[in-house]
Task: structure prediction
Amino acid sequence: MKYMCRIRLSLFLLFFTFISVKAQKADTIPATANKLISAYPDFIAGFANNHIVFKDGSTLLWDDGIKNKTFKALLENPDLKDMFSQAYKTGKLDGSPAVNFDPGRIRNEPFFLKMYGKNESAVRKNLTQIIWCPKLVGQKIRITTVNGVDKKLAAVSKELDEHLELKKYLTNIGGTFTWRPIAGTNRHSMHSFGMTIDINTDYSAYWEWVCKCTNEDAVVRYQNRIPQIIVDVFEKHGFIWGGKWYHFDTMHFEYRPELIN
Result:
């Protein structure tokens, strides 16, 4: 009896989700919400009543209505809409990023926990192993299969593997999956979800290394030695680059197709 009740409840939730999503006309869905829907079709069913609607019937608030958030608030407690508050542009940088211009660092954690796993054990279940740049490097790395990130990174690897001149930047991968917080914060590192890769740290620059601090308000001078061709290949396959941030992290590439497409 209890089993039948659970089935009826599940069917009701699915029906309610379907009706809600269909009721929301496409022209009333925010453009950036549509980007999110298009980027993650395996998880998102649509948009209704100021919420992103997932295929399992659960929802996540789009806009909390709080205006003029501080940079700290955007980092620590953003809604889904806030993730698009700074536009990420592909291609070559036009000079150093402006103070606190960090497109992609504003992340709604519940959204990524929903897709990639709510804890370390859940994330680990979706990890697979690929060979990074088989001809140039041949390093085994772990990456998530969620959203096809493993296939996207394999495509990046295949393209970069044809460039002998890039070998020094691609060897000794700095890291992929590690369940941990961002240094000096209580926020999850995106490495926790297995959808991020750091390339060779020997040729990389990181704002915390420069200021020797974890203070987000510190004044830092931009540095970078990563060739543009590496950035272009990653962006082509849906990865943003941490070298486009004021709080630069030039080794860091993160699968965020909603910010690129």
Summary: Residues 2-23 form the longest helix (22 residues).
